[in-house]
Amino acid sequence: MTTRGAVRKEEIGREAASRREDLLAVLKRAATESEFLARLADNSQEALREYYTLTSEERAALASGDIKKIESWVGKLDKELATWLWCRLSQEKWYSE
Q1: Domain residue spans of the chain
Q2: What does R_g of the chain's alpha carbons equal in angstroms?
Q3: pLDDT band at 97 (very low <50, low <70, confident <90, very high)
Q4: Which of 78, 80, 84, 89 is nearest to 35 (CA)?
Q5: CA neighbours within 13 Å on the CB side: how many for 42?
Q6: Contact assessment for residue 75 and residue 24, using Cβ atoms and an 8 Å cutoff
Q7: What's this model's pTM, rounded to 2 decimal places?
């Protein structure tokens, strides 16, 4: 691998680690700050605005409560960190025809 390729790979790794930290920070904040949890429920895109390193896919997963996808990025979540995701999923209304 060229030096340039190695540097780029390292840079991508740092960006992914930063986004992982931001995902965990959002989940931790939702578990500990009821006001932030309410903002996430009301308007997740606005609540996540300050987490600018997150990709649109990561924001969408947080907004929808996609536990599987989030855990694929950050690893298995403990009960505390999964608080927002379970709250979000409980808001879903499923209709059968």
Answers
A1: 3-91
A2: 16
A3: very low
A4: 84
A5: 8
A6: no
A7: 0.76
